[in-house]
Amino acid sequence: MPRIHTSPMHLPDHVWQTISVAVTAEPKIDSTRNTPERLKDLYESDLAVVLMNGSEAMGFIAAWPVAEGFVEIGSIWIREDFRGQGLSNALYRAVASLSGISDVVTFGITTNPISVRVGKRVGLTIVEDWDRCVPSHLSCGICEIMTPAERPTCPKRGVSCWLRVMVRK
Length: 169
Known about the structure:
single chain, 6 helices, globular
């Protein structure tokens, strides 16, 4: 059975290479930031969670610092043969409990309806007024669909692209 690992558990270097390759192969993920070194640094800073099955990486989720006081939930990956087993729920719950995100605005952008449903279960609430919670240069900064000038009035917001913000209890 896969186990969730959070820092300071030592994980071998091959794990970070595996996760980097897998995450960058996923569609809609900013591949430029997902190097093995950066993923390991996030983990060691209590900003990422790894799902392991023995010595093999099965899943990953990170909270990327994007500006002072803001982290973006991203780089979410579950190995294909382990999908559909509820493991993304476990990853989302684990990242929500990381001490590295306890005093910052935690948000995620997604075009994946499944990710929206899973996120809701752990307190990521869909926000209609994007600019009220997260500045658009953070929430839409890496959008490949709209130009920077078009992003504040993007017609996809809330229709096929959702901003979710973590509500702390």
